[in-house]
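Researcher: Re-running this chain for the archive, since the previous output was lost when a drive failed. Same request as before.
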Amino acid sequence: MFSFLKKNRPKPIHIVGTNEHLLINDVAIEFPTNYETLVNAFGEPSRTGKTKLSKSPIICWDTEGIYCSCGSYSHIYGFSLIFSKKHQLDLAPKNNFSGTILINDENVQFGDFLDIAHPKYVVGKLTYKNEAEPYALSFRINTDAKKEIPKGKYILEPLKEEHIEFMDFGFKLAVIGELMYNQEVLHPKFELYEFAEWYNKRKIAIEEEGYAPIAEVTQFFKDIQIPKSMVGLLTEIYQDGGNEIYANLLRFGNGDEDYWDIKSAEDAKHFPNLKKVTLCYAKNAVYDGMISLGIDTHRL
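Model: Regenerated structure tokens:
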């Protein structure tokens, strides 16, 4: 009779962490993770959106008190459990976290928890700007952990088959985004932090350099060749500032950069099966060019 007065009950969340693994409701988490894995662990989120300034994707579980801001839904470096209102987060959860956390066989209490680092992840308190009181526990990738990267992983050898000669770098990036990150048929799959660790000609400091294009990263995408045998795989392009390729090109982008704008539709002629494009990084003339080629064209 009075069901309208009842509040939604949080889904029970049980987090277990050891040196070897991180489990959330028995779902194994390895960073970087993705949207689908977090949904399997936490359930469907209450809301998704983007931050006001950086336009980074946000995932929010209101009832459970869980918050995630990420570069892209397919490349998520961490999430936060909210314990306090001492913050001004965009799209913040309405409730605080009420689940259980077991790290190294000990129950974690937010008040007396000390930061820890495991080989695969870090758990630490977060403080919002000038606030003295922490507001969350953050589970995130351990960027200091060393993992073996094959010495030749990011060395690009010339293809032994015919490849596409692109006129427009922005269009090439849109194609790479589809073939490398969505279909996962173009290799090696580029991961920014891994590339920075692998690169040995100088130290690439992403936390300092990631607010602008990094020359060596840009050069990798200029140099990689796309074989003509893949042209039939491209049927659609969907550009968005949160696409994984742009998150790997520019770690701390705000979503409105014009570094990778498509300036010409000419390269679309290489892809006879390309029937639909949705663009946000493109000059105005490109839209007319796509339409003239018979491609269903939309502006994001």
